[in-house]
Amino acid sequence: MSTAGGIIRALNSGVKHLAIRRFTLRYPEQKLKFVGDGFQFNPETGVGIAGLRGRHILYHEHCTGCQLCSVACEGIAEAIGMVKVNETWKQNKKAIMPQIDYGKCVFCGLCVDACPFYALYMTNDYELSSFTKSALIYTPAQLAIKPKISQDVEIKIDDRGASHG
Amino acid sequence: MTTQLPPGIQLENIDDRIMTLNVGPQHPGSGHMRLIIKVDGDYIVSCDPDPGYVHRGEEKMAEYRNYIQNIPHLERPVIHDSSNILYPYCLAVEELLGIEVPERAKYIRVIAAELNRCIYILYWLAIYGIFLGHSTMFMWPAGDRELFIDLLEAMSGARVTHAYLVPGGVRNDLPANFEERCLRQVDYFEKRLKEYQAVFYKNPILISRTEGTGILSRTDAIRLGTTGSVLRASGVNFDIRKKEPYDVYENLDFEPVVMKEGDSYARSYVPYLEMFESCRIIRDAIRKMPKSGSVRTKLKPNPKGGNDEVYKRVESGRGALGYYIVSNNRPEPYRVKISVGSFRNLICMPYLLKGELLGNMPAVYWSLNYWPVEADR
Question: Exposed end of chain A (fewer CB within 10 Å): N or C?
Fold first, then answer.
């Protein structure tokens, strides 16, 4: 193969891409769709349910304050601390619930695996940036809020290549 | 002219012709490591690799955490090949604790490992492109990598550090319609891979820079103890997936890629061809996988290993990756030794760079498939 021919073939291969749709996801306008409502775990079978491991959601009516999520996080990120809450639940005599520091959390989801009471799951919400460090610490009340998300873009593959939406 | 030096300081013998260059440790052409290179004009006289700048004590950290808590931090050395670095750990702990893995989980682990191998090779190829000044070859693999990252995200829920493989199987079952989506994206990816040929591998500029540089002969490759794509590019047919098959690799249909040239070109071409084999494995695994069943064996809380020691190894993106775990009846391992392919391949760098042009240094260095963070652990 001649040098000039090879270079022309290489350039030609690149030029062809001018006609192909762009693959880049235009992120703040477009958001990728994920499977399911986030990573969940079934303690009876010991197997999780597929989903994105974003920020957690805490179901106050199920949490017993057993601290197993906090114990699981010891030695991993040490992001979970148990705090007192001003609520009365009959399953939670001590009235303590997890508080999660997202400055430390590595989103491994092993706290969800540890929860035996279907109380702690993860959601599709991954936009957690804030202006202060203290705003990254989510209290049990903040964790109970279901995130509002609009993620609808999927990879589309056709004859003209792959693209997002 | 002997001047009195303060104690502890040594001066090297200075030759007028020889100049010492420090490439790194913060240099885009070296990663987190330093190459002490002595040059005579444009030619390298000697090269002394100096790793260790990103050592973070993974092995020591593993002694203070139980077998499950070890998972997130053990994948940090190679975050873009995280399934493959966890694979031997899971195999070793399973043998230590005597856990049976469900059949479906074995196939899912193979699919995750092969997808992750492709992600690693594409990342490596993108950097190889930019090292050689080929910015198109940075953009294309970095974009196509997204196809596989999305697949693993659907599988495991995380884009980079998946923490998906655990002793006893995998964390969660595949999502609905995953097989169909995976096959569609793998088919498209193979089509894309073929386009790399004209723009990169058949490009005369790349060939002139890599062909015939840094030749590692077959005997030298064996003598220096290299592994992975470096070894296979020198004509040795050694792939742990074939020689010591783990999980279900013996049932799957693939051929290790072997080239006999042993130069930088062959070392960069072998991982590229391996991606086709990975796609073949993924397709075969999806076909042979049991359609339903359990994917994880339930562990006791805080499981204890007996008085035992295990060594398990797998073929990662950079070669043989092994874990040697000693346990002494405690929930934590007594000792964890990680043997990584990157560090094994580092040894041939002084041999290959001797007598090379300084301009060929990045082409030879990065073709060794060396990942500094993994080598330092």
Answer: N
